[in-house]
Write a structure and sequence with these properties.
The chain is α/β, with parallel strands linked by helices and about 260 residues long. The protein has one domain: Glycerol-3-phosphate (1)-acyltransferase. About 45% of the residues lie in helices and about 10% in strands. Helix 1 packs antiparallel against helix 2 and helix 6 crosses helix 8. The protein starts with a helix and ends in a 17-residue tail after the last helix.
Amino acid sequence: MAKLLFNIYFGIAFILLTVFGLAILPLILLINGLVLQRDLATGLRRSIRFYGWIIVCCIPFKEPVRVEYSSGEPPVPAIFVANHNSAIDPYLFGAVAHENSFVTSWPFKIPLYSIFMKLAQYANSADGWDEVSKKCAALLQAGSSVTIWPEGHRSRDGKLGRFKNGAFVLAAETGHPIVPVCILGSGDVMPPGSRMLTPGKVRLVILEPIFPELHEEKQTRIRNLRIKCHTAILQSLEDHGHFQVSNTEQEPLFSP
C-alpha cells in the first residue's frame, strides 16, 4: 500500500510540475534570450536541467538525490560517463549544477519530449555514431557537457557491463576530459522492466576527471581512457558495497 501511495503522489507531482513548467517555459526562454543573451538551444538545455533538479531534489524518490565530488568540481564542458541501471538515470543529472546534454534515444520516441530534445540539440543515439559524434562535438564546442552511457543499455542485473568506445573516441578527438560518474541506488528505485517506483536513496559520485593523453597514438588513447574510466566506476561501486563480478575490459576494442 505504501508503495502504491508513493507512486500516486509522485505521479501527481510529476504531472503538475510538467504542466507548470510548460506554462512558464516561454517566459524563461524570453529571459534567457533577451536578458542573458543565450540562444534557444542553450536556454532549453539549462531549463531541462532545472526541471530534472526539481524532480530529483524537490519531489524525491525518498530523499533528495545526493551528489558527491571525489576531487572537487569537475572541469566543464566534459564528457560525463556513467553506469546505467534505471530509466530515472538521466533525470539524476539535474542535480549536477552544469549545463548538460545526453546521448539517448527513448525521449525522441515520446511526442512532447521529442520536440524539446530536438530544439535543445540533444543527440539521438538511433541516428548512428557519425551523426552522434558531430552533435556531441558541437555541444562541447558550445560549452555544454555531454553525458554518455557507455554500456549502451541499462544493466539487467546491476553489474557493470563492458564499455563501448563512443565516449572515449569523442574525448580522444576533441581533447575534452572524461568525468566518470558512479550512480548508486537508481536500480533499486526503478529497475529495468518495472513500471512503478520504489522509495529509495540515490547518490551520484562524481569521480576524478580523466584527461586524454594527446601524445599517445589515437587507438591507445581510446583504449586507455576506456579502461581507466571502467576501473574508476567499478572501484567506486565496490567501495560503496556493490561487490560484483563484472564484464571487465577485454580485447579487442569495442565498437562505438
